[in-house]
Every structure is written in C-alpha cells, then in structure tokens.
Amino acid sequence: MAWKETTNLKLTLLNAENLFLLFDHPPGPESLKMTEAQWQKLSSSIYENKNLAKAKELAKSINDMDPDIAMLCEVGGVESLKNFNELFLGGKYLTALIEGNSDRNIDVGFLIRKELPYYFDLLTNKNRSIKFNYPNDKSGNSLKFSRDAVELRLFQKESQKPFLILLLTHLKSRLDPERVDPNGFERRKAELKTLVEIVRETQTKHPNVPMIVAGDFNGNASKASTDPEFLPIYEQTSLLDVLEVDQVPQELRATFVQVKNGQKAEGRQLDYCFLSKETQAYLKRQSASVYYYKDEFGFKIDKPLSLDAKLQLPSDHYPIVFELEKIPVW
Length: 330
Fold this sequence. Notes:
single chain, alpha+beta, Deoxyribonuclease I, Chain A, six-stranded mixed β-sheet, globular
C-alpha cells in the first residue's frame, strides 16, 4: 500500500454578531486603549463598529480555541475581517471572504492559519438561483441566497484535487418585516434545498473527498425533532452534525440563548457543522463541543438568564469547535 501524507486540523464555527470594523484611517495598537466613544469616532460608516470590549473578547475566545480554520458568520465585509485579524489577532491568519447578497452587509468568511502548508480556493454561489420567489413579486426573477454558500477548497498541489471541502452559509432568518413569508420559512426552505443540491453536485464532482457543511441555519436542523425545512439534509445526504457524531449531550448543544423579559431563558442550537460520511471517519473523538465564553479569570461564564447578561457576551451565538485527524492529503 502506498504511503499517504495526512494532516490534523482544528476548526471552529462562530456567528460573530455584526462584526463591523470599518475605519476612516488605519488604526494603530493605541486604538485598543480607547474609550468606547473614542473607538466609535474612528469610523464615519453607516454601520456601527463592533463594541471594542466585545471585539477584544471575541479575539480572546478565538485565541483560546486556537483553530487552524475559523468559519465566521455575520462579518461586515472584507475590510472588517482583515481589520479584525490584524488589529485583534496579530495578523496570524489569512482572510478569505467574498461579499454576498445580504441586505445588512453581513457575510460569511474564513480565517486560515498562515502556517498551514496548503493552498486554498474560494468559490461563491451568491448568483445561484434558489428557484423561489415571494407570491407578491411579479418580476419573474428567482431569489438567491440571503447571504451566500461559500466553498473553501484545501489542496496541496492541484486546485481541482482538494483534500477537504468546506461549505459555509448563513440561511434566511426568521424575520419577515414585509409579512410575506411567516418566520422566513419558505425562503429558508428554498435555500436549504439549493444547499443540498450544491452538496450533491460537489460530491459527484469530488467523490470520496471529505466535506463539511457549516453555518447559522436559523432553526432546528438537528436530527431530533428536525424543523421541516431541514429534512432534505437527512433524506438526501449522509451529513450529520458534528455534535451528533461525537454524541455531545443534548443539553450541551445550544449555540444561542433566547432571553425574553419575565420568561425562562431557552437555549437552542442554530449553528451546525455537518460532516459528510467521509469526514465523520476523521473526527477526533470527544473533541467536539460548544465553546463557553470565559471571564477575566479564565472561568466559563454561565449562559445568560437575562437580556443584560446576554448583552455582555462578545456574541449572541456560541462557537462550535472540533478536531479532525489523519485526513489524507494528496
């Protein structure tokens, strides 16, 4: 049997909650010592920059997890991701982001450790039709992904021969300001159906290549009590959520806490890292978990029971972190 080179990778998925870092002039390290009011005055953008203290805590959490690849949702464009990497993470990552379709200008993107001995390609599906439109739209033009479904291919020599494929998305939220699609259900269903089509096409083109499909799905896409729009994941693919594969207890899978005044806080899993059958074989057992943010002393912060406590966290979502080992590289 021919010897094969293998690699290990640590990955994290995080909805960074409105990670806008846009400046009129490039800020220096001294800006990290500013007051919040001074910090906000560094930008004249219509988008408010991420709170300075929260940006610091977000970076601290990423450094604590120390991923080789971070998959991020709700990033305010290419400039914001580059500024976050340079200003808060010491520039130790390469950034990869293609601006998508979001009407809030929140995108999905990647941080890739510079020391990794591989190359990568980034492909977009932002122009792909989801074969759906709202009943009140008479234009006849099909909608596209709310954000995108971005494909990151890792390869060693030839871009057409990747050894790992990551598909990152952020599906339609439950917001329905125009009251044409209650809870965003129909559009999210169409986006999910298109996402599954992309997965199957990619697996046909690259058979046996490990694949990860990750992102903020804005609903219960888990195997238990699956929301109906996500059923094609289980009916048409071999994908399984990494927390399911690693048998993480249900009570430890919440990535988002819904807090309503006067009511009990409810933890829900909205973020998922689905592994193809090929990828599941390389999961390092007991490496998958939902990461809890930590206080100044390094102790885990309990999940919030009030809105005030939730607003103190660096993001309203919790990261998922896991490791793959002995992935064949060709």
